[in-house]
Design a protein that fits this description.
This protein is 79% helix and 0% strand. By secondary structure, the protein is an all-alpha fold. The longest helix has 28 residues. The relative contact order is 0.16.
Amino acid sequence: MVKFIALLCVCGISSGQILFKMGANALVANGGRLFSMGGAIVAAALALYGVTTLAWIWVLQRSDLGKTYPLMALAFILVPVASHYFFGESFTWRYAFGCVLLVTGIVLTSGT
């Protein structure tokens, strides 16, 4: 259960990054007006970060930081993949190979 919640935290942090980028794009599109759709998206990202932080604290109460924290590296995979689909950003084979190395490291360090 703890690792599942930790993985949800990774998804929450990754989703928050996508929302921050969406909000930033919307803010640029409307001249930087904070009380706009862009501001609302940024506020949603901040709220998601808040909830994710509380969940992460719950995880840390029940697990070793050294074993659990490497799971956060999954965000380095999820965010670029999501940015490829949402924003058309490039995702190269070189980066994909780096992701394989990251997952290998996560498996080795977190004891899964």
